[in-house]
Amino acid sequence: MSGSENLLYLCLLLTVGVAWTKAETQRPITETCLVCMCEALSGCNGTAVCVNGACGLFRITWDQWVDSGRLTIPGDSPLSDSSFTNCANDPHCAADTLQHYMVKYGQDCNGDEHEDCYDYGAIHYMGPFNCQADMPYTYESIFKRCLKRAEKQQKQQQATNN
To answer: How do the pLDDT tens digits run along the chain, 162 residues long?
Structure first.
């Protein structure tokens, strides 16, 4: 990771300790989880790009965008020809799209009776109706390594604060 990615990562990790209240359930994915999805899907490459119909940092598809309510960047119309790619290639709009998608399709995919980042990663990558299947090795290994690194950094931060 570059210095700027480390800074972004550290800033996002500081939000992990924030308690989520019922009023905030419309944002089920933590910032750390979003970072790890981004890292596993695109290496968090901020270059506006679409690969095989999946666009942006999170490789959002047209169907996911539509299912999430056709969110747009400010000043854009959900009916314009470029609104999907504009949103998917904008980090904030793309993250909000994923939040809406998980509100709609969030579920326990791995049978641990807890809906969490692992489930969201599976839902996003494999779809809500196939999230119980095994994740592809490369995606899963990068995703889990990122989550473990974040957990370790959070523990170190807590130890430093105590």
So the answer is: 444 343 344 333 333 333 333 334 489 999 999 999 999 999 998 888 898 999 999 999 999 999 999 999 999 999 999 999 999 999 999 999 999 999 999 999 999 999 999 999 999 999 999 999 999 999 999 999 999 999 999 889 888 887
Length of the chain counted residue by residue: 162
Task: Return the closest-CA partner of residue 91 out of 55, 121, 123, 122.
Answer: 55
The token duo for 59 is 């490789």
Per 3-state DSSP, the chain is made up of helix, strand and coil in percentages (nearest 5) of 55, 5, 40
H/E segment holding residue 60? strand 60-61
Q: Which residues contact 154 (CB under 8 A, 6 or more apart)?
A: 13, 16, 17, 32
Tokens at residue 13, please?
């990790």
User: How far apart are the C-alpha atoms of 126 and 132, rounded to whole Å?
Assistant: 9
Residue written as token pair 């309510």: 69
Contact between 88 and 50 under an 8 Å Cβ cutoff? The reply is yes
Asked whether 12 and 32 are in contact (CB, 8 A), the reply is yes
Rounded Cα distance, 96 and 99, in Å: 5
